[in-house]
Amino acid sequence: EAGVTQSPTHLIKTRGQQATLRCSPISGHTSVYWYQQALGLGLQFLLWYDEGEERNRGNFPPRFSGRQFPNYSSELNVNALELEDSALYLCASSFEFTENTEAFFGQGTRLTVV
Amino acid sequence: GNSVTQMEGPVTLSEEAFLTINCTYTATGYPSLFWYVQYPGEGLQLLLKATKADDKGSNKGFEATYRKETTSFHLEKGSVQVSDSAVYFCALSLNYNNDMRFGAGTRLTVKP
User: Fold this and answer.
1) Cβ-based contacts of A104 with chain B (< 8 Å)
2) Which of A50, A99, A102 sits opposite B34 (nearest CB)?
3) Which residues of A touch B104 (CB under 8 A)?
4) pLDDT confidence of residue B60
5) Which one of A96, A104, A105 has the shortest CB-CB distance to B98?
6) Which of A99, A44, A14 is nearest to B102 (CA)?
7) Average pLDDT over residues B69-83
8) Could you give the CA distance from residue A67 to residue A53 in angstroms, rounded to a whole number?
9) For B18-72, what is each residue's pLDDT tens digit?
């Protein structure tokens, strides 16, 4: 069974441009989470989608947005890119409403803003 | 709000030393607790978990006990190896609510 897949693996953008990152969850998982892992800053919660709805978002500006599609895949969009947006963006997926909810992570998309 | 606090790193140990990485949490309700590990150049992998108070999660020689009275889930290993060098993340999720929260991560380096 395929795990969580993210694309692209690497992305290089210029400051001010927009970036779109994609995530396909494990089959049957309805929740998708996005995290930013900037160098030396650990894992910062960005967004949580479940059943097509945004359930929660972290302390990030509105230029970070996303959506979840009917097949539960998800996109993360970052507008007006800034140099400090350079980071590894991790997507995770999980089942909904189970006692042992655990997240399975993709390999990440390395975004570099120049 | 719900949050996880873990000891700041980096932690550097010699091979076969004892490891403790502290983790405490704040949560409304009864969370499940997890430790994830990120090896160099890889994504996060689940290391162990515990879903209720006094449960002990264990895997690959690592252990952590869910302590409700101290709201803690400290990670321990009796004898670390060079291959354990990685970043370790403590995390929580509230049962029946998939709001996953992670600690900042603790980088462990084990020297031969």
Assistant:
1) 46
2) A102
3) 41-43
4) 95
5) A96
6) A44
7) 97
8) 8
9) 999 999 999 888 888 999 999 987 888 999 999 889 999 999 999 999 999 999 9
